[in-house]
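Page 42, continued from yesterday. The earlier attempt failed because a stray header line got pasted into the input along with the sequence. Redoing it now with the clean sequence only.
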Amino acid sequence: MLTEASPSSRLFVSNDDMPADIWEQNVLGRTRLANHLVPFYVFVPVVIGLSAYGLVVDQVPWLRFLLAFVVAIPLWTINEYVTHRFLFHLQAKSEFTRKLVYTMHTGHHEYPNDKRFMLIGLNVSIPNAIITGFIFWLIVGELWTGLLAGWLCCYLFYDWLHFATHVYNFESRWFRRLKKHHLQHHFKYNDRNYGVVTSFWDWIVGTKLHKRDLNEQSS
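This time it went through. C-alpha cells are written below.
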C-alpha cells in the first residue's frame, strides 16, 4: 500500500477509504467493484466465446484472427492514454459532469488506497464491450471477434495491473518500473505519466515525468 503523499500532489486527500459522507456528496451510484477477480470471471468466458465464434462459426483463418488479436494491443494502449488524459482528467463545467468525473477518476486520486476506485465497474465495462464490439464489426467485418478478444484481454490486464500497482509490491523489475511510473502520476504530478500498461505514449507525447522535473520540484 501507499504510505505518504508528496506535498506537491494536487488531488490526494487520504490513504484511508473514502468517508461515507464524502461518498454520498460526490459519487454517482452506491456500489463499486472492489474484487479484482470479478472481471476475469465475467470476461474470460467472453474471450473464449469470441474466439470460438470467430474461428468455428465465422471460419476466420486462425492467422487472420491472431493478427486482429495482436492489432488490438497498440489500439488499447492509445485508447488508455487518451481516455486517462482527456476524459478522466476532464475539467467539469456542470455539477453532473463533476460527479461523473469524480466517480470515474478524481475520487481515486483523492483516496488512492480505496479499492472501490481501483477497478472499472461492470456497469461501465460491459456496455463498453458491447459498443466497442459493434464498432469493430462495422469497421473490420468478420475480424471483429479477434479484435474484440484482444481488446478485452488488454482491458483485463490493465484492470489487474492498475489494481496491483496500488496493492502489491512484486519484485519484478518490470512491475516496479510501471508501479513507480503510475504512483508518480498520483503523488508527484497529476498531469504526467498517464499510461498504466506502458509508458510509451507518455514518452512519445511528452508527458513522461523525468528526473529533471523532480529536481526542479525539490529545488
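Notes: The chain has a mean pLDDT of 92.
Reminder to self: strip header lines before submitting.
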